[in-house]
Amino acid sequence: MNFKKITAVILSGLIITTGMGAMSVMANEKSKIYIVGDSTACEYGSDDNYAVPRAGWGMYLGEFTPGTEVIDLAKSGRSSKSLTVEEEYQTLLNDLSKGDHLLIQFGHNDAKKSSEEDLQTRYTDPEGDKDTEGSFKNSLYKNYIVPAIERGAEPILITPISRRSFNEDGTVKDTHGLYDDDVRELAQELNIPCVDATKLTAELYNDEGLDGTAAFHAIYKDVTKGDKGHDNTHLNHYGARTVAYLIARGLRETESDISELISFSGGITDEISRYDFTYGIVRAIGGEYADNMGETFPDVDVLSSDTTAIATAKKLGIVTGDDKGNFEPFASISLQELVTVTARALKAAGVEPNKDTAVLEGYGRAEDIKPYAKESYAALLNLWGDTIPNVSPKTVIDKGSAYAVFSLVYDEVNEADEDAEAQSIDEIEKVE
Predict the structure, then answer these.
(1) Can you give the pLDDT at residue 12?
(2) Mean pLDDT for the chain overall
(3) Which domain holds residue 406?
(4) What long-range pairs does 383-389 form, CB within 8 A, spacing at least 24?
(5) Are 311 and 255 members of one domain?
(6) Are strands 230-235 and 217-220 parallel, antiparallel or unpaired?
(7) Residue 219 — pLDDT band, cuts 50, 70, 90?
(8) What pTM, to 2 d.p., does this model score?
(9) Which residues contact 376 (CB under 8 A, 6 or more apart)?
(10) Given 261, 290, 305, which residue is the final one in a domain?
């Protein structure tokens, strides 16, 4: 897998979109955007059970709605039925007002019926129309669409995003059955806007393939969970941001007033900082955080929640300071720096690839590599081959490439049982 390929589709879309210029926001300036849904849309905290943490696309939609407040009421493990007993649903009923927009995305958990508890609390029948009690369409209609309309808000349906599940021919597997079709049909019947997130994410996943899409998903600390540690349902922060962009693009293409609230004029900063990459690589190798705050660098904020990861990286010899002892945490990381930090992280985790620099003879930019980085380049080239792009070592790295590296490092550090079966979707998507 060439990790420089990861963001090609997304960035090309951004270039086209940003070229259209900013749209003036003529919709109700006081309107808000509410989100209801499941774990793929909700907000997360520190997520300590994950080496590469989960995130929901709702956490990032606000990047594309400047000046408009986004209120994310989605909740992990919930269906269109089970969310109605949560305080988030009461907040929705109490606060949703005239001129607001309600984004409704369910389907992952409405299909759950493997236990009696699921049948009673989460399951909705994909058969039946909006007036059939107990059906998915009925749940969407009576629990969200009708309350929104009664309050003068606009309901907008969104189909569930694709899971990272592939057929033998390499195409994305349809894991939603009738549920995504139900959403499309209901939107058409009621003449309300619909964003086909299933289709948008499937198109992206088909382009990236199984290996490429690893960059979009969360990874457990425990390699026995998920699929050899990989969570193929839940997004990581890069994946959530990517899906938020796709949904924002879909919203902009609707005939709804919400299209006027969507803007890409500011562009998206897709570079990853030295700070964020180091934090991610320490989590990927399962590094035990250092307790001594004095181990960090003078230009790293000691009050930051991520400081311990930077201190750990310094203690393990993964990162070093400049001639003044500074780390320059917010500077963008270059390919040469990424390669060096990654090789050191692997060594700290007990993985020592072959450092024979003979491999550099076939690497076109070898003459541009600084002496301190040559062995690191050799280590990764011997380990991963042409996964390391043949570009200038000074090339600034994008977030997609960085998250692809986190996935590769995790797989090298953790010895998964190749014969172990992946956990079921029900187990991964349990109520939390």
Answers:
(1) 36
(2) 89
(3) 275-413
(4) 383/346, 383/353, 383/354, 383/412, 384/408, 386/2, 387/1, 387/2, 387/3, 388/335, 388/339, 389/2, 389/3, 389/4, 389/335
(5) no
(6) antiparallel
(7) very high
(8) 0.90
(9) 339, 340, 342, 343, 344
(10) 261
